[in-house]
Amino acid sequence: MARGNVPRQPSRSGRQEGARRKGAPVKGAQLQKAAARPTDGRVPIKAGKALKAALPKKKSSEDAASRVSTYDPLAPERVRQIIAGLDQLYPSVTCALTHRSAWELLVATILSAQCTDVRVNMVTPVLFEKYPTVQDFAALQPEQLEPDIRSTGFFRNKSKSVVGAARKVVADFAGNVPQTMEELLSLPGVARKTANVVLGTWFKKNEGVVVDTHVTRISRRLELTKQEDARKIEEDLMQIIPRERWTDFSHEVIWHGRKVCVARGPKCADCGLEKLCHAADKTWSTVEIHPSARP
Q: Which of 51, 91, 198, 265 is deepest in the core (most CB within 10 A)?
């Protein structure tokens, strides 16, 4: 025998290396047998891998894409659910600005720009006691009105608007606040938001949807519009909200924006519309989030 050559020794188990006893189960069968054996609740690693590979793969990404493709935020049924939810949350709600006449509501709405309704309601009682009629306002110089409304902010421009509107109402409309959109828009300081408030709240005429910061924010969160301009948002809402609900919808959304769906840190866990909202900035959610649903 040549030096260094050592014959291979047989296995002590009686099998040569690489040999398989007759009738020995194949690897797959071994894994199935191992998986079937009672254990302490844990599946052997190799068997677990085999079983996992045998299961059909989840199609989470495909399912998500399918849901997004079939989801329609403007579907009539969804819009009806939103309206019904708001009705339930805020029954018989109306404008938060205190007033006793169309003129007082007009003045209060002008003063509410970039100011809270709470602050306006603190200012107007004293203001209307001091100047009871539209003729009293028309007789003022804007500078005379400024101290009375200073706390509402932007008081110089607001003074000019209120006095200018009073003079226009006295001169062109016999002291009565006009009842059409075109005529209201001819008054100094009056844009569509103010006109819609007066027409819808006092005269009960649904000529448009009031779009303030609350309506803008919540309409975008609810994916009722993707617009940022107030006029375009109003046009979108007028297309999907029934006309007879325009004024009530505005008031309800405004109240919702003050109480629950606030600008920073919305109270999603307390929101009655939570299941209908997929907003990207939700603080708590039971539904899928849509990145495009932003305020």
A: 198
